[in-house]
Amino acid sequence: MKTGIIIPCYNEEKRLNVTAFTNFIQQENDFHLCFVNDGSKDNTIDVLLNIQSINTQKVSVIDIKKNSGKAAAVRAGARYLHSRSDIEFIGFIDADLSTDFEDFDGLLQTLKTNEKLSFVFGSRAKNASDTIKKNGLRAMISKLINILIVFILGLSIKDTQCGAKVFKADLVPVIFNKNFFSRWLFDVEMFIKMKRHFGKAEIMNKIYEQPLQRWVHMDDSKLGIKDSLEIPYRLLSIWFNYNILQNINYASKSIVQEPIVEIFGLPTPSFAA
Fold first, then answer.
1. Cβ(160)–Cβ(146) under 8 Å?
2. What residues are paired with 119 via a beta bridge?
3. Which of 13, 109, 145, 260 has the most CB atoms lying inside 10 A of its own CB?
4. Quick one: pLDDT at residue 136?
5. Quick one: which of 158, 159, 182 has its CA closest to 233?
6. DSSP H helices in the chain
7. Could you give the CA distance from residue 45 to residue 64 in angstroms, rounded to a whole number?
8. Which of 167, 176, 269 lies closest to 208 in space, CA to CA?
9. What is residue 198's predicted lDDT score, i.e. its pLDDT?
C-alpha cells in the first residue's frame, strides 16, 4: 500500500523543480505522485507528462481542462487516488515545494504511528523554527486571518492554510464528497466537514497540527496582497454557507458543473471530478 501525494499545478512550467520531483520518483517506492494541472495557460501539462514518462507506475497526471481553483484540483486528485486499490494515505503539497518531501514524510509518520489520528497537517505557526520564513506584511495578515478562522471553526488551530496535509484515504468521502464553496480557502471547509463528521468533542483527537522544520514563501506566489485582503470576506461567505444556508436546508437551484478532466495514468474505475 502506498501514499498518494497530490500536487496541484497552475502555470508551473517555469517554477516546477523537475529535478527534485525526478529524484524523488527514482528514490522512493512507497509513494505515488498525482499531479493535477488546473487549466494552465502555459506548457505545464507537457512538463508534467515528461515527469510521468520517467516512471508511469509512480506518477499520474490529471488534466483539468478549465482553470477551476486549487480546491477543485485537490478534490480531483483525492477522488482519483481514493478510487485506486493501492493507496492507503493521501496528502497534498504545493508545487513550489515550499514544504519539502522530508517535512511531508514527517507528517505521514505521525499519522502512521498514531492509530487515533485520521488527519495530520503542517503548521508554520505552531512552535515555528527559525527556518520558517515569511515577509513581514504577510505574517501580519496571516495572524489577522487566523483569528477569524479560529472564530469560524471554533477550534484551536494555529495554521489551517499550510499547503502540506496528509490523511487516511477513507476520509475522502467525508471531505471531498461535494464541491467546495471556495476556490482557495477550502482548507477551512475541510476542517468544518471533519468537525461535523467526528463531532466537536472528538475532532481534536482525530487531527494533529505538526510544526514544520522548513517552509519558505516563494515571491511569485499565485495569491497576492490584494487576494489576501479579500480573505475576510470570503471566510465570512464560508461561515454563512455552512451555518446559515445549510442549517435551514437551503437547496441551490443551480446545477454545479463538474470540471472536465483527462487522466493520464494506470487504468482505474471512472469517477466524476
1. yes
2. 167, 207
3. 145
4. 63
5. 182
6. 18-27, 44-52, 70-82, 101-113, 136-153, 172-175, 186-198, 203-206, 225-240
7. 10
8. 167
9. 97
Cell of residue 107, nine digits: 507528517
Mark 203-239 as b/e (b = at least 16 C-beta within 10 Å): beebbbbbbbeebeeeeeeeeeeeeeeebeebbeebb
Q: How far apart are CA 238 and CA 169, in angstroms?
A: 25
Q: Give the Cα separation of 70 and 47 in Å (integer).
A: 19
CB contact at 8 A, 46 and 14: no
Among left, alpha and beta (phi > 0; psi -120 to 50; other), residue 63 is: beta
From first to last of its 273 residues, the chain has per-residue pLDDT tens of: 999 999 999 999 999 999 999 999 999 999 999 999 999 999 999 999 999 999 999 999 999 999 999 999 999 999 999 999 999 999 999 999 999 999 999 999 999 999 999 999 999 876 655 555 555 666 677 777 888 898 899 998 989 989 999 999 999 999 999 999 999 899 999 999 999 999 999 999 999 999 998 766 565 555 555 666 788 889 999 999 998 876 655 544 444 578 899 999 765 555 555
Residue found by looking up cell 464560508 in the block: 238
Helix (H, G, I), strand (E, B) or coil at 141: helix
Domain boundaries, the chain: 1-97, 98-163+170-248
CA dist 31 and 20 (Å) reads: 14
What 8-state DSSP symbol labels residue 259? P
Instruction: Return the CATH architecture of domain 1-97.
Output: Alpha-Beta Complex (3.90)
